[in-house]
Amino acid sequence: MHKISSMHKQEQLNYEPPLAEQAFVRLRRDVLGCTYDAGAKLKLDELQASYGYSSSPLREALNRLAQEGLVRADERRGFRVAAISAEDLADITRMRLLIDIPALRDSIAHGDDGWEAAILAAFHRLEKVESRLNDGPVVLDDNWSDLHRAFHLALVAACPSERQRAWGGSLFDQAERYRRFSARFRRSARRKSNEHRKIMDATLRRDADTACALLEEHILSTQRNVLAALKASAQS
Prior knowledge:
4% strand; 236 residues; mainly alpha; 3 strands
């Protein structure tokens, strides 16, 4: 029995995701991180040279990114990074408000002690990383961005709807590209730990009205910052 268990653990350690999944994860991170400019053409031959995958897994990855709205597919022109615009951001923000606010309210209603502990742990990790960063925009740090995502997902983890949680996560990622875009034009650092602490405190007090109002303002502030960045980029 011990031998079988050891073999199973070794198989888990040796496991590598399928090539299409690897390509998707890497390409997705680069699109979200603004490695590719908005509207940039994603040519398969260039992607093959950059990532080392054949056309099949890359095409599958691009189709998945198109389903998420991060890439646009055109039968004649191939794939392009989705454009960045005030209209698209408004749509993302509207959908986040429709999905994330009720999800948080449901999460507060259904969350248990384990859910509360996970939120505290996620906030602690995020705050520790933020305290070590310099005065630049924190969103440009990959580690901070990963922990920021984990904190927001922890808040709604007790929402009973799996689809609601999944859609909320996808919209959060689409907004991430805009957050990184706006950080390029930000003159002063925006430290978010105080905002996150207030949301967390209200959530753990089970004060759903306050927590939801704070999260709504948090989401809307991202939209305002990006709109300012779009205006600055148009003037530069």
